[in-house]
Specification:
By secondary structure, this protein is an all-beta fold. The chain is built from no helices and five strands.
Length: 88
């Protein structure tokens, strides 16, 4: 059996079920663990309706923070820009 020192450590940002508190230090608007909705756009995207859970905060790309989100209706994660989600 491996010793506790040899096991990898997971940070709260890497776990799905650990909601984080204040994210003012990172600059992200949506904390890990919170529910969000996809914003409406044209043309409409093919995506599951309903709320998504923020699984991880990702670094900025093209000047916008990115998020990994997950719907209970889809078997995969989505990576989405901050401007494409809103509070549910």
């Amino acid at each position: 059996m491996p010793s506790p020192k040899s096991l990898p450590r997971l940070s709260a940002a890497m776990t799905e079920d650990a909601p984080s508190g204040d994210d003012s230090a990172t600059g992200h608007s949506f904390p890990t663990g919170h529910e969000v909705m996809l914003t409406q756009r044209y043309p409409p995207r093919k995506a599951a309706p309903g709320p998504y859970k923020v699984v991880a905060q990702l670094p900025a790309r093209d000047g916008q923070y990115q998020y990994r989100i997950k719907s209970g209706c889809e078997p995969f994660f989505r990576t989405i820009a901050e401007s494409e989600i809103e509070r549910s």
